[in-house]
Amino acid sequence: xxxxxxxxxxxxxxMGEVASMFDVNQSLIxxxxxxxxxxxxxxxxxxxxxxxxxxxxxxxxxxxxxxxKGYTLQGAKDHLKNDSxxxxxxxxVIDSLESLKRFLLxxxxxx
Length: 111
Known about the structure:
Blueprint: E1 13-14, H1 15-22, H2 26-35, E2 42-43, E3 49-51, H3 53-68, H4 73-82, H5 84-110
Antiparallel strand pairs: 1-3, 2-3
């Protein structure tokens, strides 16, 4: 039975890791933290922010609404408040499709 590499998920991500995940400045993440109530990173005594996987999912939704769909900040806030369940489901579908696309591109490159 071949060894299957499992994905390691972290409990907390630092501000630098999150900023590099989304390829944005840390100031934009801090701004979104102030603007959106769904983002609640943990802070230590020094004030360093630590984001949970749930915070990462919320950031993915926010970036999708603002960058891809063209929502304004207020529009994205309203959308998250009124239709958060449907938005989360859509984001999960998008994530799974992107994962499938990466896998298929890897298979194509190996051929």
